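To illustrate this point, what follows is a protein record of this kind.

___
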Amino acid sequence: MDTRTLLPLAASAALAGLVLAAGACSTGEAPAASRGAPERLADTGLYADAAAGTLAPGVRAFTPQYPLWSDGAAKRRWVYLPEGAAIDASDPEAWLFPVGTKFWKEFSFGRRVETRYMERAADGAWLFATYVWPAEGGEAVRAPDAGLRGACATELGPRHDVPSVQDCRACHEGRPSRVLGFGALQLSAERDPLAPHAEPAKEGDLDLAELLAAGRLQGSPETILAAARPVEARSARERAVLGTLHANCGGCHNASGPLSSLGLELEYRRGELAPALRTALGVTSRFQPGGKTGALRIAPGDADASVLAQRMGSRFGPLQMPPLGTHAVDQTALELVRQWIQTDLAPAVAVASER
């Protein structure tokens, strides 16, 4: 959770533009194009009967074990994989999806508010759109590309924003696989009991075992299953912390995306010392809050002095992390991270290295 410069929330569109212009993620995929999406959610292929809420054939629900924080929203998620097509999982940490793949994620704050949609089009680019559910009832229709600020109230105080298309791109363009929350670790049947805001897998959910059994994953089954094993950590709390950072921060802070030059890797990858430990523990932060010098990304035994915890606990534009998609601090995750730094890391002797 580090950056070369202060990036206020208003800069999210500029960040997305930089990502698209630079082609920073080299994946063989075409850059996301600006084009239309269906005006009604009912026309995206989610439902066989929209009025009854009956899902279309081939559309499956899934539940990631480390959910993304969105100001306390309740969520439902669905995926459609084209018949006969398979996901390229040769890199088990970065799945590449076939043309025609569709994802939907529904956000509720006491009622359905929005459903986000992404589809991989014939040219390889990902199409993003958001559909808004009227408070008075009725069908969901496409939101303006600029999004809707303050679209509804939340129990935590700040109002919820329906994201712009650029907001969607800014979050999803940060790693080779544009999809967040759908991979070997997230779909594993072996769930982390300490994962913040964890949702139990529901009956009928699509999971990793079913994808493998149906031949929907190309790659070594042994390698894919290895990537699904519990996060390697020195304690149960550290496991949950690394999984949470992976899900909420690793989409941007990783070794392959446009922010890779920062040297902060919060995306979990099996087979090495957890990148979050290697790149943050005892490492001097490039972002120095309040004009200070020498502050560490993670200061072992001192949560208050750790820039990572400070930025997670802020919702002041230039300081807050994540910079998009949230106006309320995830107090559960923050307390977990603070306890880990304060207690689990206290005996550790970190070697600081300027980055």
About this structure: The helical segments are 12-22, 165-172, 208-213, 221-228, 236-248, 275-280, 307-312, 331-344. Confidence is low (pLDDT under 50) at residues 1-34, 348-355. The two ends are 13 Å apart (CA to CA).
